[in-house]
TrEMBL record, chains A, B, C, D:
SUPFAM superfamilies: Homeodomain-like, Tetracyclin repressor-like, C-terminal domain. GO terms for molecular function: DNA-binding transcription factor activity; transcription cis-regulatory region binding. It holds the Pfam family TetR_N. Residues 34-53 bind DNA. It comes from the Bacteria. It comes from Propioniciclava sinopodophylli. This is TetR/AcrR family transcriptional regulator. Residues 11-71 form the HTH tetR-type domain. Keywords: DNA-binding, Transcription, Transcription regulation.
Length: 202, 202, 202, 202
DNA sequence: AATGAATGAGAGTTCATTCAT
DNA sequence: TATGAATGAACTCTCATTCAT
C-alpha cells in the first residue's frame, strides 16, 4: 500500500521518483516505461516505488496533474501585467513555449494520455480552456478583440500552441535538452493569432 | 514470412485484417491491441495475420500510410474547384471533418504514433504540410491571402483542424459512430481562419 | 484468455497440466505452488498454462471439483450392492480409504481450500453430506441403524474418515506413494462406527 | 535479533502483536497475513515485530503452541471432576466447544499448519491424542467403556470434535464473533459418541 | 491459404526482512 | 524500545511471434 511520506527523507525519495517518471514517460512512453527503469533513474530499488505510489497509472496521472498546474501557473503569472488581450496572448504563448522548452515531455505526456488516462487528458485540456474561454469572452465583449466565439477560439489557440511547440521545440530536442522556439517562428505564430483576433477596423 | 496476397480470397482476408486493426487500434490503442483481438475481429486465426503482415508495427505503419493517403485524396478532390485560397480552406476543412467523422480513429492513431512509430507520424504531418505550404506560398504571392509565413501557417492550420476535430468529432463519438461537426463550430472555426488569412484591406 | 482445447493435442496438454497441478498443490500447497513448477511438471512452457486455465485459483477449484466427483463416484459404486447401512458404511469407508491411498493429496487440497477457495470447500463437504444425510435418514427410519440425527451423524462420520485417513494414509506417505490403511486400524474404525450406529437391542 | 521482553511495557507490546497475529492469521490465513497488517493491528510499527519475534513462521508456531496449551488446559480443568469416562467426554467436548467459540480461529490455524508448519501440527494433534489415549485405555481396562482401541478411538473422537465445531461454530461466525454450539447439535454429537463408547450390555 | 497450440521474455506488483535513526 | 524507509527476490500473468499440421 502506498502512503504519503512521513519524513523529509521520504519526501525527497518520492520527488526523485516523480522526476524520473517524467523523464522516462517522456522518453519512451507510458507503455515502454518500466517501473524498474523509473526507479533506477531515481536511484532506488523497485519496491520503493510502491511505498509512494499505488501503481504506474497513478504516477502518470499525478504527473499530468502536476505539469498542468505548473504550466497554468507560469502562464497566469506571465499574463498578469498585460494591458490587453493581444498582449496577453503574446505573453501567454511566450510563457507556454518557455515552459515546454524546460519540460518538452509535456507534449508527449498529454498526447499519450488519450489512451493511458482519458480522464487526466480531459481534465488537462478542460482546465486550460476554461480559463481561456472566460478571458476571450471578456475581451470580446470589451471590444479588445474581434467578436469571436470564445469556446471555439480557445480550442483553436490551444491547438496552435500545441502543434507549433511540438514542431519547433519537441522535435528539435537534442541530447542537451530542447531549444527555445526560434524567434521568427514565434513572431509568425503571433502574427497569425493577432490577425485572427484583432478587432475589425471600423 | 509475410507476402502479398496472390488471390482474390487472399486480398479479401488481408483487407479484413486491416479493417479490424483500424478498429482495434482506434478503440484500445496500439499497446492494448492484441493480435488475437485483431484477428478475431477479422474472423481469422491468429497465424493468418502473419501471412499478410510482418508484425504489429508494420500493420500500424500501413494503417497510418493508408489513412493519410485517403485523407489527402479527399481533401484534394474537395479543394479542386475552389476559386481562391479562402474557399479552398473552407472546402478542405469541410472534407477533413467529413473524413474524420467516417474514420474518427484517425485522431487517435496519429497521436499514438508519437511513440509507436515516430517516422510514420513525421511522414503523416510532413506530407500534409508539404502540400499546404506550397498552396499558401502561392496564395500569399498572389495576394489572395495576407503575406503569411507558409510553413508556420500550415502547421497552425493543421493544429486547429486536429484539435477542433478531436473536440467536436472524436470526443462526441458514441456507440453509433462519430457525429458530424456542428455547423456553428465549423463556421466559428472558419471565421477564425478567415480572419487570420484574409489580406489586409489597403 | 483461456479456452477449451480444440484439438486432441490440446486436450492432452490440458490433462497433463491438471495432473501436475494436483501433485504440486498436494506437495507444497497452494501458495508455494508456482505456475512455473506446475508447467515444468507437465513438460510445457509457462504460457501454455494460460491457454487452458484462467489462473491459479481456477485450476485449484477445478481440481477440488474433480476430486470430489471421482471420490463420490467410487464410494457410490462400492456401496451399491450393500444389503444394509452398516455394510454400506464398511464398503464406503473401504472405498474412501482406497481412493485416498491413490490420491492422498485429497486431504491436503481440501484442508487448504479453507482459505484458498472457501466456496469450493463448502461445495465439497456439502455434496458429501447431502448424500450421506439422506441415506442415514432412510436407514434410521427403516430401523437399520439407531435413531440418529442424520445431519450431525453425517458430519461426524465424515470427520472420522478424514482424520483417520490423514493419520494413517497421508502421514505415512513415502516417496513411493501412500500405503493402504492398516487392516486393524480399518477394523477398529469400523468397530467404532458400528457401535455408534447399530440399533439398540430391544 | 528478536529477544524476550525485559520490561512490562515490552511484554505488553509482545502480547498485542501475538493477539493481532491470531486475528489476522485466522481471518485471512498465513500467506495473506502480512507483517504490516499484524503490526498495524497491534498499533506498532513494522520494525517492532522483529524485536520480539524471529519472523512470520515463528509467531505462527508460537500461536499454535499457545492455543494448544490453553485448549488442553481448559479441557483438563473441565474433566477433572467427571465421575467416569462418558461424563468426562461430555465435559471435555463442552469445554472444547466453549473454547473454540471464544477462539474460532483455532480451527483455521490448525488446518493451515498442514503446509505452514507440519511439525507444529503434528505436535498439536500428538499432544491431544497422547492424553486421550491414556484416558481411554484406562477407561477401557476399567470397563467404563467398551473395549476399544485407544489410539484409533482417540483420533476418531478428535476428528468428530474438529468437524462438528468447524461446521457449527466456525462456519456460523458472524461479525460479532462465533456462536456457541446449538444445544441439539451438542446432544446429538454426544449421543453418537456415547453409543460408540458405552460398554455392551452383558 | 489457413490454423491454433506452444513459447518465454518481460511486465507490474507484493512483502518478509533489514537497518539507520 | 520503537520507528518506517528501503530492499529485491519471487510471484502471477500477457502476448507477439513461431511452426507443425
Amino acid at each position: 500500500m502506498s502512503s504519503a511520506p512521513r519524513t523529509a527523507r521520504g519526501r525527497a525519495t518520492r520527488d526523485r521518483i516523480l522526476d524520473s517518471a517524467l523523464k522516462v514517460f517522456g522518453e519512451v512512453g507510458y507503455h515502454d516505461a518500466s517501473i524498474v527503469r523509473i526507479t533506477e533513474g531515481a536511484g532506488v530499488a523497485m519496491g520503493t516505488f510502491y511505498l509512494y505510489f499505488e501503481g504506474k497509472l497513478q504516477v502518470f496521472n499525478e504527473l499530468v496533474e502536476d505539469l498542468n498546474r505548473r504550466m497554468r501557473h507560469r502562464m497566469t503569472q506571465a499574463i498578469a501585467a498585460a494591458p490587453n488581450r493581444l498582449e496577453a496572448e503574446r505573453a501567454g504563448f511566450r510563457a507556454f513555449f518557455a515552459f515546454t522548452t524546460e519540460v518538452p515531455q509535456l507534449y508527449r505526456i498529454i498526447r499519450q494520455a488519450e489512451f493511458v488516462s482519458p480522464e487526466a487528458m480531459h481534465l488537462h485540456y478542460g482546465r486550460i480552456v476554461d480559463g481561456y474561454r472566460k478571458a476571450l469572452a471578456a475581451a470580446s465583449d470589451a471590444g479588445e478583440i474581434a467578436p469571436v466565439d470564445p469556446e471555439v477560439t480557445a480550442w483553436a489557440l490551444m491547438g496552435i500552441g500545441e502543434i507549433i511547440g511540438m514542431r519547433w521545440i519537441l522535435w528539435q530536442e537534442g541530447s542537451d535538452g530542447a531549444p527555445p522556439i526560434p524567434d521568427d517562428v514565434f513572431e509568425h505564430t503571433l502574427d497569425f493569432i493577432t490577425r485572427a483576433l484583432r478587432p475589425d477596423k471600423e
